[in-house]
């Protein structure tokens, strides 16, 4: 029997199911530790396989793609904060000061690493460039985010705390080392990885599912459904959708204007439209008092779920449309439009 056209794809349904399960059965205690461990292993495996798959020539071309990296950094650290300030007259009357501060704080954060790369791969984008841009965004964000947040929030709760070097070390251990190991192992397993693309796709999707479950479980345990009204949560979701939509459309228009290839446009859209929950929570604990931090990170937790859900659907659709013509598609082909 043919699949109904109105029914979402299996991956989208799995994402929705993951959110529902996390809402009713969030992982706690030792289970949460186990989920985090499995997630770290999946992410490490993902970067190892990407390292084994990518040629040195492709990686060098990605590192030197300065126009793409500059655009992503400008979108992340300039466009988003300006957008948050521009929408102040609309947001302040309907949100509490803490929630609006949370939106501004979210705007200052770096891009995600794992999900940006996984989604770029799923959508057949420029994975080497995504690795370079997302990693650079996260590392620079450790220093840029506190500075920009201090400027636009005008808060007196800035305080010294967790070490930026520790966060940088965690990034290198979890992401960079597996990728380098994969590059080293490429001479022996590169051909096997290229022949088993379904394995890489499975790891891509699996890592996203694990990140969604772990992040939403933590949000539920922190009392996301008790701390604010349903109306406020819906309003925050709508605001996050507006921010994400503006970012995706703006980056797509600029990259088209600059003549970027389809693969580079996908990379710019996914890396330039996301905000990192993994970086945001530790930074919030440094910048804000414990009493303020809880409400300030709520918009970030919701944005994290919104960006994963929306971008996962987009990546799945773009990737499926690209598979039939993957071998001979010209680099300048326009981004496929949704029906």
Automatic annotation (TrEMBL):
Listed transmembrane segments? 7-25, 31-50, 71-91, 97-119, 131-153, 165-186, 228-254
Q: Name one GO cellular component term.
A: plasma membrane
What domain of life?
A: Bacteria
Q: Does the keyword Kinase apply?
A: no
- Entry keyword set: Membrane, Transmembrane, Transmembrane helix
Q: Protein name, please? A: Solute carrier family 10 (Sodium/bile acid cotransporter), member 7
């Amino acid at each position: 029997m043919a699949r109904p056209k109105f029914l979402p794809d299996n991956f989208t349904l799995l994402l929705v199911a993951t959110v529902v399960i996390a809402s009713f059965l969030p992982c706690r205690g030792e289970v949460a530790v186990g989920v985090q461990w499995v997630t770290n292993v999946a992410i490490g495996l993902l970067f190892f396989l990407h390292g084994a798959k990518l040629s040195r020539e492709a990686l060098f071309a990605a590192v030197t793609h300065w126009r793409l990296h500059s655009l992503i950094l400008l979108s992340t650290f300039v466009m988003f904060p300006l957008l948050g300030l521009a929408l102040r007259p609309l947001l302040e009357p309907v949100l509490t000061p803490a929630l609006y501060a949370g939106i501004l704080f979210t705007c200052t954060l770096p891009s995600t690493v794992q999900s940006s790369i996984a989604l770029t791969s799923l959508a057949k984008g420029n994975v080497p460039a995504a690795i370079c841009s997302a990693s650079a965004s996260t590392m620079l964000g450790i220093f840029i985010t506190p500075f920009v947040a201090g400027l636009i929030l005008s808060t007196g709760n800035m305080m010294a705390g967790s070490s930026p070097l520790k966060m940088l070390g965690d990034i290198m251990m979890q992401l960079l080392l597996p990728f380098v190991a994969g590059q080293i192992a490429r001479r022996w397993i590169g051909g096997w990885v290229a022949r088993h693309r379904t394995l890489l796709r499975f790891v891509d999707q699996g890592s996203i599912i694990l990140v969604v479950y772990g992040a939403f479980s933590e949000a539920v345990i922190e009392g996301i459904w008790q701390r604010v009204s349903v109306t406020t949560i819906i309003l925050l979701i709508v605001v996050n959708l507006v921010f994400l939509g503006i970012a995706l459309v703006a980056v797509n228009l600029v990259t088209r204007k600059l003549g970027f290839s389809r693969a580079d446009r996908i990379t710019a859209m996914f890396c330039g439209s996301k905000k990192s929950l993994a970086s945001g929570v530790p930074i919030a604990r440094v910048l804000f008092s414990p009493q303020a931090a809880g409400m300030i990170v709520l918009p970030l937790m919701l944005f994290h779920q919104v960006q994963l859900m929306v971008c996962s659907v987009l990546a799945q659709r773009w990737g499926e449309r690209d598979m039939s013509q993957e071998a001979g598609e010209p680099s300048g082909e326009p981004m496929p439009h949704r029906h």
